[in-house]
Amino acid sequence: MTYNILSVISAMAEMATAPPPEGTIIKPKMPLVTLSRDYGSGGDVIATRLAQRLGVPLYDEQLMREVAERLNDDPAIVKMLDESIGKAKDMWLYRLFSGKDIGHDSYRDSLIKVVMSLGRLGGVLIGRGGHVVLADGCALRIRVTGTPEICARRMAEQGHGSYEQELAKANDMNHRRGKFVWDVFHARLSDANQFDITVNTDRMVDFEDVVDMLVGMGTAIHAGRVLGLK
What we know:
alpha/beta; Rossmann fold
């Protein structure tokens, strides 16, 4: 589900002109979920189905386009910094030929502002440290994990590549995502206290069973039926 870009811009403007008092929890207009996932764990499928069931937007690549919009830069270049896939050599060449510099601090500041703005609207946000940025908000923070070997076998069976290729990709992607969260937010994906629920999908065949559980949790948090949220 896509979301009206004017609503996103309006939320950004509202946050910039009237930031909430310190310690205040702003309830989003719709249920809000952040989802961090291991490669091949089914996290993307779960996020998509969860957004559909909750009737909220799904933010993934759109999130990066919003960051690029704020930086007034090419989304493809911002993607180089996303989830730690950028290389220093590539960024040096980009600065040399473009004369532009989108450094770590600028990226982090823009990412935080975009995530907080989307957090006011509600939706399912995939990755990008959303669970850290919205730790004090009315968000259900989910971590979807899986053993690399099992995730690689799952992806190979779906035709994405050989088992060996997918295992290497799983280890690489998981490392990069963990490094991204550490480099940008100094948080560990392995820290269970960063999440409200961690789901290991190694033994899950039908992800709809996972979605059923998460819908109830997301609805409860949005309704304020949890400790500390009213």
